[in-house]
Each structure stands twice: as structure tokens, then as C-alpha cells.
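testing teh design pipeline on a random one, pls ignore if ur not involved
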């Protein structure tokens, strides 16, 4: 397919924008006057015929709701305000484009809610109706529902939160029939393969299908076909944004992405992803995030040896399903310039990865690193990327290894979230340090050093084996996140030698990272990002990277950290190369141990940080949603 042919008319029209806008004016006016978008966002389908009637359907007590919605227990991350200088300084046409990008983001949020849980939209409608009746418990529940973007989530203490009575989280989320068990799932796939239905099984096991029952079999329906009307509305908004966008390369991406939302063809997404990954000098940011951390059903396949063998013989890879998110923002040029400082070192880091002669990695050791990076002031985070569930996304490196664009020469792109990483209460931070960190090492703790570590983490996702992770099943994300952390730490000394960091910054990164690795409670195995921190704490403690002082505070043995990180990185890369699930499982189980030291620090953290839930506040986005 010729990408340039697809986009040529709209890209070229960017040079004569006013004429094109006038040509489409009647269509745009039709949508705006009818307020079709807002009706779609407010209209919640009753697809499952379950009625949420009466306050008894709310799972949390009034007392619990009052506690969790109190400002002491509910943290708020504020996106750009309506009068933010970053917005006011945009070109007028980019402001118009931004409005349509925000609208597109919230359409995607509606789609993702259905992927997350088949009852989310019904429950949302129930809450809205109850609030109109004056139900205060429903009002408080809606605050939590909007924050975690669904009925079920984990809070910051890794407690499971169920907002609707009788509705537990499903291992297959909304991707699979809710009554489908792991054993039945495996048996159906085996039977279908034995019946020669390889193509049907391949569709079931891709990352972009909703799976439904069809008689005694299963069928995979592409996301675009399953949610055709909403994706079409979203594509309309992207087309409108493209008409206003002042940046040619960004416009090209929007046009490609709109095409991919109208036709169920993975290659169209690949073309859009490939273009998105090249974006560097654009005023606006728009991303559809597709990550597969939530699907606990597909990952069980590698544990069934018979089924795994049959799939391998047919060259079918079971890829967990993607949750969908959307990020809308304004690129911060100053922050982006600071990020780019590391880019010239990426080929050197690739050369220094363990066992680098045994695999191909995304970043070339000699040529173009194919890695763009932007720092973004956020306007809206919708769907998966905006769900506050125990935490919220600080930065992302996309597309992931399972995405088709990487097979057609596409690169990857890092996007960092300024509003998420900002610390609003420095007094609280100091209280935390006073409780958990050796006083003599306070001078090495710097909140900005956490950002430097995150930069290393996101770039490390592009290092290491491009393939093999899929064989690790439900453990693949734990192993990959562990690799990214250790990749960031392992190269701190090298980057200091190369001039990227000063000796002072080196110490700040090491002390800050070890300190921030401690959690308020033991996480669930499903929390890949948190499980890996427990694994690291155990690994570092066993090898002397840190110790607790007699009064129970962390003392980091600075010069030991990087060599130990290198050791762990080598072990992780070996697991990824081998693609051995049993080996990965043993490694995780050996290191995922909640120790007495971790419990001591956890109690101290709970003392100074009462937060249980979090949410985002998007003043500018809400204003733009209301505009005609």
C-alpha cells in the first residue's frame, strides 16, 4: 500500500488550508450543530441487560467512600489549565486542532471502558442517574469511577477496589466471554486447531480482537469492527484536526491514523505508528497508546505445553490483548531539548548490552537509533493511559515489540508526562525522606533525578532482544519492566564517564532510585511495575547495595549499585533470549519476596502518605469539549 497516495490530497491541502476548510464546512457544521459527539459520549449502551438499581448495588460503604474521596486520601494530578501559557501561545489553527484531538481522546475512552469490563458503561449510566436523584454515595463513587476509569482497580496499597457489588475483576477483562475459564479456553483452542481452523485461532490470539462465543467455538472480532461507529466518529475528529494542524508531519500522522480507525487492517495501524515514531518537532502531541498489561487470560497459554506446541508448529504467537489509551498535549520545547542529550549515546549503550551478539535490538549499534523523544505538557489523558490504578503513567516508550510497525522499518518514540511527574508538595516529600532515608544521604536525593532515571528506563525498553518475550506468558511484562529499570541503572557509570552526568548527578540518580523503589505495601502479581521493584529490592539487599540503619532508615552503598544492576540485567536478558517460561517463573518467584526490611519501610511510608486513590483534573480539556 502506498502511504503517500493515501495522504497526498490532505497533506498537500495543508498549504491551502482555508480553502479546504471552507469546502468541508457544511459537514463539520452538521456534526457540531447536531452535537453528535457529545450525545455519543453521554449515551451508554445497556448491552448486557443488567440493571443497577438502588444504593445496595454500590459496594463501598458511605464511610469508606467519604474516606477515599477526602483530599488526604485522594491525590489529584492537574493537567493544563484553560489559561495555561502553553495553550495561549499556540497558533490559532493548532488551538482548533487541539479541540478535535481532545474530543477524539474521550471517544476512545468510551471504547476502552468496554475492553476493560463489560459492565463499565452500564454502571456509569447508573451512577449518573442516581446522582440526578440526589444519591450522595453515587456521587462519591462516581469520583472514584472517573479516576480509575472503571468498576474495578487496585489502590495505592494494592487493595482490590470493586465499586459495584457482585462485579469482580475478570482475568480476560472485556476481551473474552466473562464465563470463559482458563481450562475451557485452552480446550476450545486445541479442538479448533485439530479441526484445521488455524486462521480463526490466529485471529483469536492477536492483540486487537474481542473474543466471543460462536457455538462451541470462539471467534475473534477486530476492535475496529467491534466498535465501528465510535471509531468512525473518532476518525472524523482526527480528520478535522488534520485540516487545522500547522505541522505537515503531524498532519500526515493524523490522516494515517484516521484511515486506520475506519478499516480493520493492522497494516494501516503500522503505517500510522511508523509515522508517529518520527515526530520530533511538532507543536501538538496526540498518541493512541496500545499496551497489553491487563489481559491475564492470553498469557496462560504458555503454561499449557500441548497447546503451546501446536501453536508453535503453526507459527501462531499468542499475544495479550491491548488496552487503549489516548494522550493529548502540547510539546514542551525546553524539556524536549534536555531529553535529546542522551540520544547520541544510545548506539554505545546498545553495544554494551549483555549478550548483544545473540539478538537483534531496536536501537542500531552503528546507524540511526530510530528513537525520537518529546517532553509534553498534558491536556488530557484518557482511557488506559489516564486510569489511576495504584499509580499513573509517567512516560511511555512505544510502539511495543509486538507491533507490526517495527517489522516494516519503523522506530520508537518516548513521550514524557510533565504534569504527572511534578511534585506538588515538597513538605510531604521532606517528611518522607526524614522517615526512610539516612540523614547523611538526603543531599543526594533529588526529585529531578527520578526523571533522569525514567529517561534511562524508557530508552532501555528499546535495548535488548526484540523477540522472545511472548514465550514468557503472564511474566513477560514483569521481566521487561525489570530489564528497563536495570538497563537504566547499569549504564549510569558509563554515561558519567561519557559526560552525560556529573559525579554528583550519578550519586543523585543512584540514591534517589534505590529510595523510590520502596513501596507502601506488597503488590499483586498482576502489577508488573511494582512486582519488579520488590524483586530488585530483594536482589539489591542480598548483595549489599543498601542496608537499614539501626533506626530503620535506608543507607545506600552507592558504589555497589551499578555493578549489581549489571548482574541482574545480564540474568534478565538471558531469560529473554532463552524464552523459557519455567526459568522465568523461578526467577520471579525467587526474587519476588516481601522482606522484613521492606515491611519496616512500608510502615513508615504509610505513616507519612495516606493516599489510597488518585485522579486527574483536566480543566483545559473540559473547556475544549464544550466548544462548538
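output:
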Amino acid at each position: 500500500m502506498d502511504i503517500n497516495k493515501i495522504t497526498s490530497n490532505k497533506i498537500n491541502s495543508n498549504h491551502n488550508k482555508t480553502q479546504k476548510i471552507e469546502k468541508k464546512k457544511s459537514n463539520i457544521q452538521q456534526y457540531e450543530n447536531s452535537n453528535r459527539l457529545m450525545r455519543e459520549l453521554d449515551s451508554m449502551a445497556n448491552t448486557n441487560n443488567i440493571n443497577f438499581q438502588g444504593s445496595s448495588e454500590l459496594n463501598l460503604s458511605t464511610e469508606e467512600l467519604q474516606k477515599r474521596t477526602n483530599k488526604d486520601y485522594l491525590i489529584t494530578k492537574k493537567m493544563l489549565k484553560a489559561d495555561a501559557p502553553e495553550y495561549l501561545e499556540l497558533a490559532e489553527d493548532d488551538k482548533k486542532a487541539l479541540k478535535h484531538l481532545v474530543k477524539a481522546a474521550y471517544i476512545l475512552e468510551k471504547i476502552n471502558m468496554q475492553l476493560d469490563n463489560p459492565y463499565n458503561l452500564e454502571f456509569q449510566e447508573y451512577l449518573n442517574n442516581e446522582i440526578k436523584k440526589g444519591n450522595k454515595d453515587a456521587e462519591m463513587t462516581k469520583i472514584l469511577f472517573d479516576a480509575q476509569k472503571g468498576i474495578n482497580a487496585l489502590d495505592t496499597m494494592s487493595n482490590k477496589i470493586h465499586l459495584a457489588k457482585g462485579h469482580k475483576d475478570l482475568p480476560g477483562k472485556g476481551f473474552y466471554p466473562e464465563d470463559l475459564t482458563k481450562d475451557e479456553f485452552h480446550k476450545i483452542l486445541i479442538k479448533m486447531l485439530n479441526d484445521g481452523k488455524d486462521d480463526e485461532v490466529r485471529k483469536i490470539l492477536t492483540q486487537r480482537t474481542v473474543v466471543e462465543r460462536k457455538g462451541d467455538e470462539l471467534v475473534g472480532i477486530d476492535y475496529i469492527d467491534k466498535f465501528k461507529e465510535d471509531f468512525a466518529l473518532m476518525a472524523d475528529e482526527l480528520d478535522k484536526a488534520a485540516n487545522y494542524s500547522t505541522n505537515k508531519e503531524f498532519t500526515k500522522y493524523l490522516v494515517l491514523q484516521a484511515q486506520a480507525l475506519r478499516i480493520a487492517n493492522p497494516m494501516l495501524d503500522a503505517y500510522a505508528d511508523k509515522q508517529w515514531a518520527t515526530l520530533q518537532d511538532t507543536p501538538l502531541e496526540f498518541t493512541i497508546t496500545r499496551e497489553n498489561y491487563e489481559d491475564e487470560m492470553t498469557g496462560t497459554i504458555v503454561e499449557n505445553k500441548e497447546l503451546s506446541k501446536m501453536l508453535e508448529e503453526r507459527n501462531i504467537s499468542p499475544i495479550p490483548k491491548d488496552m487503549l489509551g489516548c494522550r493529548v498535549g502540547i510539546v514542551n520545547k525546553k524539556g524536549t531539548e534536555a531529553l535529546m542529550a542522551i540520544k547520541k549515546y544510545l548506539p554505545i549503550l546498545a553495544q554494551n548490552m549483555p549478550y548483544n551478539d545473540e539478538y537483534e535490538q531496536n536501537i542500531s549499534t552503528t546507524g540511526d537509533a530510530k528513537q525520537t523523544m518529546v517532553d509534553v505538557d498534558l491536556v488530557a489523558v484518557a482511557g488506559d493511559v489516564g486510569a489511576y490504578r495504584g499509580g499513573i503513567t509517567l512516560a511511555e516508550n512505544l510502539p511495543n515489540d509486538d507491533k507490526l510497525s517495527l517489522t516494516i522499518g519503523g522506530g520508537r518514540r518516548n513521550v514524557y508526562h510533565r504534569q504527572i511527574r511534578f511534585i506538588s508538595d515538597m513538605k510531604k516529600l521532606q517528611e518522607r525522606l526524614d522517615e526512610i532515608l539516612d540523614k547523611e544521604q538526603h543531599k543526594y536525593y533529588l526529585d529531578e533525578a527520578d526523571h533522569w532515571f525514567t529517561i534511562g528506563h524508557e530508552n532501555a525498553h528499546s535495548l535488548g532482544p526484540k523477540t522472545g518475550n511472548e514465550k514468557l506468558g503472564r511474566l513477560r511484562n514483569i521481566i521487561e519492566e525489570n530489564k528497563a529499570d536495570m538497563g537504566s541503572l547499569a549504564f549510569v557509570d558509563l554515561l558519567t564517564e561519557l559526560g552525560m552526568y556529573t559525579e554528583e548527578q550519578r550519586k543523585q540518580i543512584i540514591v534517589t532510585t534505590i529510595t523510590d523503589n520502596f513501596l507502601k505495601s506488597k503488590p499483586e502479581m498482576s502489577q508488573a511495575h511494582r512486582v519488579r521493584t520488590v524483586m530488585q529490592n530483594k536482589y539489591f539487599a542480598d548483595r549489599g547495595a543498601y542496608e537499614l540503619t539501626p533506626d530503620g532508615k535506608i543507607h545506600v552503598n552507592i558504589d555497589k549499585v551499578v555493578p549489581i544492576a549489571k548482574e541482574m540485567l545480564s540474568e534478565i536478558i538471558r531469560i529473554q533470549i532463552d524464552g523459557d517460561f519455567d526459568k522465568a517463573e523461578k526467577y520471579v518467584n525467587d526474587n519476588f519476596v516481601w522482606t522484613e526490611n521492606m515491611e519496616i519501610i512500608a510502615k513508615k511510608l504509610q505513616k507519612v502518605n495516606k493516599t489510597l486513590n488518585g485522579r486527574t483534573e483536566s480543566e483545559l480539556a473540559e473547556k475544549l469539549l464544550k466548544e462548538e
